[in-house]
Amino acid sequence: MCGIVGCIGIENPVDYLIDGLKELEYRGYDSAGIAVKDNNEIKVIKAVGKLKNLEDKVKNVKFYNPEFGIGHTRWATHGKPTEINAHPHVGKFSAVVHNGIIENYQEIKKFLQKEGIDFISQTDTEVIVRLFEYFYNGDSFEAFKKTLEKLEGAYAVLLITNSDNKIFFAKKGSPLIVAKGEGIYFASSDAPLIGYANRAHYLEDEEWGYVNENEIILFRKNEKISPYFKELPASKESAKKGGFRFYMEKEIYEQSDILKETTLGRNTPNGIKFDELDRSFFDGISNIIISACGTSYHAGLVGKYLLERDAKIRTNVEVASELRYRAPLLTKDTLFIVISQSGETADTLETLKMAKKAGLKTLALCNVDNSSIVREADKTILLRAGIEKGVASTKAFATQVMTLWMLSNYLAQKNEYDAINEAIEVTKVDISLHEKIKRLSKRYLHGHGFFYIGRDIFFPLALEGALKLKEISYIHAEGYPAGEMKHGPIALADEDLYVVALLSKNILYEKTKSNIEELVARDATVLTISSEYIEMTDDFVKINKTNHPMVEFFEMMVITQLLAMEVAIRMGNDVDMPRNLAKSVTVE
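RESULT FIELD:
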């Protein structure tokens, strides 16, 4: 996720901007920049890569009387990670930084181009500063207000202009904080503010306004309101974790916001739209091969069910480390899809090269722009998950599955707009549910292993739930199709075998329930996750009733993640850095 900082009313704003951006490095970025008003001139310095590159460039800039400024670390969503696409974006007399996605940027851009306004970047953000200057007629406040009225999507915005000694701000769907100390500060999370400010107002959606050296002028929609200040955390590390015990916990909790970013501009009331793709890319395709490893492989298995059921395209999912050493039949009517969080997964990258050599069309689902896999693939759909600090993947898996769901809708020309939004909504963590899972976790520490069972799309979720548990708790766990129990695994059933049953009301409910009964009859300890209460099992976690299995999937996903984490915490493990594992597997 991108990061934002800003400040006014302090002696050396450049120091805060650079220090603040350093505190946001943990969020992930591919470029960075600052804009500073200095002697009636807005000076903009940008660099690709690490912040050290920006720092080196800033040292070579002469500042005479720096008054205030804004800064940004960018994680590319629209346009490659280049200096031109890096923030801040500038017009003739203004500069802007922005987190989020402007859904209607193409419409705004076309309008402004017809008005004779030129664009230099590939980003959605540039339309903000161009639109502001289009509306400007001597009144910056009115121009900013009119600009916000035209924007659709999610945004946290800071804008400065030569015509005013103010920083304009707005928040809708992306985090932004305004804080007071010696001066007035902005940041997209707490960490940059600690040591500079002591109290902060956490902006709510549709709050906007401006600050000068002395005051914060704040509006909610069109009503002027007073800031509500809270004390800032004392620890920078705690602030980076948002008050959570582990990064993994934070990442589980932020999945609903991340999924909004993944779907922004893509899931529309008129169906799925991918700026990255053209329908002609799929001409002549009658088969799909998905190649991936680990968690990404499990996401691919979910994609197989969706693509075959909805798009009616034969789909095979391959473990990349196996596929690369086989002699697979790669025919040119096959679309080759690779899935990787990092874009550097060695085995997956090698299968992509193999497919390219065979002349197949290739598509990457990846979280890191300009990574090796993105550079190699013909087309890429970016996951927009932001950096994931926890080694055991959570939000990257969620975005992979969501992207595959949208892709199946896109290919089937199917519109599940409401169901996708409902699925995003149920990934919000219910605090009372989390407390229940904390209590339940103490029952599941000392058995001889776990079975996770499910059918259809819930079988890959069972595989993923088991993987999460064994990655961070070091307890043996397996995922199985529920109907496979009687074909051997049920021999292990006794009171010390723990079973997590994913019971969908919408897919094969009675058959899965029967499989659960078989395990209960053999005295296994069973935890059922379902919208339908099952009296016979030892424990039960209730999910919301819905008529769509993918909504059930996403709610169950969060529960299995929380369960794995709470069991691991009770075992005394560092869930962010499990033993023997690396975040990006760049070797065989």
